[in-house]
Each structure stands twice: as structure tokens, then as C-alpha cells.
Amino acid sequence: MPRILELKLSETARKELEAVRDRHPQPHMREKAAAILKIAAGSSGSEVARSGLLRRRDNDTIYRWVARYRANGIAGLAVRRGRGRKAAFSPSARDDS
Known about the structure:
single chain, about 100 residues, mainly alpha
């Protein structure tokens, strides 16, 4: 059974998300804000994941974005420090003797 997402936004929160969607310098923040706004407008998580964004996303990705937004607001949508692939080696650790 698909999970139902309901998200009610205040007018202030909606305007803040619209500003992030329209003008944030980082594309991932614009995409996440667009997804949150679509959920708040009544779209299901699976609809947004399947065809509501420029790229198809996994349903659970959308649910995680909504959960992080609920917990931390706009700051919860940012990529957290330490995420991503780590360097294979550190240039500063190189021995030039």
C-alpha cells in the first residue's frame, strides 16, 4: 500500500520554499524545494518521484526529503557535511622527499 504524504505549509513557509525553488544557487536545493511544494499541493510522493521533477527519483528519496524538511525546515534539505565519495588519497599526505 503506498504511503500517503500530507504536508501543510504556512504562507511564510510556502514563500520561503518558492524562493529557494526559483533562486537558490544550488540545483539540488531547487529540486528538493520543488518536490516539497508539489507534496504540499496534494501530489503523492510516488507521482512526484515518477514524473514531477526533471529526473526520476526513488519514492523513498522523496519521503526522506519531506521528513528532513519537517524536522529541520529548509536547512534539512541541504547536503550534509561529510556526504559523498571520499578522496582516494590526500595530496597533502604525499611524500616529496
